[in-house]
Amino acid sequence: MIEGHVLHRQGPFTLDVAFSMGNGRSLGIFGPSGSGKTTTLRAIAGLVRPAGGRITIGGETVFDAESGAWTPPHKRRVGYMPQQYALFPHLTVRKNIAFGLQGWATEEADRRILELAALFHIDDLMDRRPSSLSSGQQQRVALASALAPRPRVLVLDEPFSALDQGLRHELRREIKTVQDRASVPMVIVSHDWADMVALCDRMVTIERGRVTSEGTPTEILKRPAAGILPWPTSIDNVFEGFVTLPDKFAGVTACTIGGELVIEAPYFEARQGDPVRIGIRAGDILLAIERPRSISARNIIPGRVVSTRAGDFETEVIVEAISGITASAQATFRVEITPRAVASLGIAPGLHVWLIIKTNSCFVLA
Amino acid sequence: MAFQSRSRKVSELRWAALGGLPVVLFLLFVGLPLAAILARGAGEPGFISRLTDASVLQPLRITFATSLITLAVICVACTPVSYVLARKRFPGRDIVDSLVELPTVLPPVVAGLGMLMAFGQRSEIGQALEAIGISLPFSMTAVVFAQIFVSAPFFIRAAKIGFESVDRSLEETALTLGAPPLQVFFRITLPLASRSMIGGAVLSWTRAIGEFGATLMFAGSLAGRTQTMPLAIMAAFEHDLGATLALATVLMAISLAVLVVTRLLLRRWSVLT
Q1: Measuring CA to CA, how many Å separate A205 from each of A7, A33, A171, A286?
Q2: The whole model's pTM is what?
Q3: Residue of A nearest to B269 (CA)
Q4: A145 close contact with B: CB closer than 8 A
Q5: Residue A198's pLDDT is what?
Q6: Contact B175 A73 (CB under 8 A)
């Protein structure tokens, strides 16, 4: 759908980034500030003309340094959402969304506006001006505006950097909905692991203008040596611990976390006693109210429900681990399951449960 | 308690006196001459009827005609200039920037003399124009030339600030939404810079209405042709104080109206943008 190679002078270093969305629907560009993420994104949108390389969108070459091909931004049909939402302050929300619909038949444009307003729950804000909206509302309007003219690809630059954690969670879910319903391919630039894991099929990591790894977010997270990338703190559960027993033949490395809780992670080479960090996503943990038997999952941990909090689509359950032997383990897990599962299992604070975690869902971050 | 509040009151009074006195003095300084014109004018026989006399209406017409043409020319021709100065980086930009500002510090008489030397009958350009039947000096066109020279920089400066204040990412987003550059300029850049531009346009226009020195040098003071209000005041002053005061009163009224209308206009504008 979209692939390219961008060569550009970028301050102290040369930007040299090749990327490809493959068959996926979304590509993440991940890296620390100043690594060249935004320049790459702007090159895709046509706002920066790279010194060299080539960019193809949906089979059309929009830039090729060799042949001199260049499609200007207004003809690329690339929806662009910069970091500061860039809403037109002199226009109402409705007119902001309608901006990209120049040349559409009035009736069709009106229908499109209504459709987007409903999708982003901004129906009652249509006559307001951007300055009177909250940052979450502004973000929604910006998304609706960018999507309005049905772009071939949507590029988002740090879409959630201006939002607090709770809102981020919510809007990530909304973008996910857009991905599913509008089936617009997306390129997302971020320095937050959670964005990559939640929204991207494929991703590249870049540092100082170079691609350092490429693959699915899970693949990249699993690689122990992730270079100088920031820690994926937003991978809901991160535990500090040490290596207990690396077992090459069993394909697992046992690690001890939270004092004496043993977790089996995919095998990696280490020595006994090496410090380790293990990350587990909230959605990868299963809950059972009886101790499961005959199951392939290797990590079955007894625990007690501390609290539950209902979100729009999932319920967050906080579970405190109880060590089988001395009950002194200190580990709290954030688990996400559907409200239906909560109801059918009767999950409530105080209930004894078993946490079930596949070995492969334990990412070694070291 | 009572003592404290009294001492506070005393200190407030002292500050009011310290700050208020200069304000009052300044208002008197500005207001007295204006009031004197009205007072002396009212003492003249038939003053009210003189306000609409042909001797007032004729220069008034010329003033409005020329200054409005000046304003139109400035808005059309100087908007691109301001945009380029605000947005583009090119060699010699600082020099161009200073040259554009020069007319604001140059004495208008010098500007008028310069125009006479450049476009006058004895200049090469003047002779070339003469050959095709155009004579600039002492024409209404010359009045407009003098006004543009002196007042354009006020507009350019304000419009430049207006353009500089428009967030680039808004223009970029508009481009990616499919609007070609010219459309982006008219739908995004111009509306967002408009407040500043209106302020500059009003300043330019009032400066053009009051233009005297450059006009006198380049266009002369020909009644019915190049004699604008300020020139008419000067001409009348030599023989008829009553006519002078009538002209001055009308000009004062116009200035006041412009001030009030602009304020109201910009207040509404700030609600809109």
Answers
A1: 16, 12, 23, 30
A2: 0.73
A3: A90
A4: yes
A5: 77
A6: yes
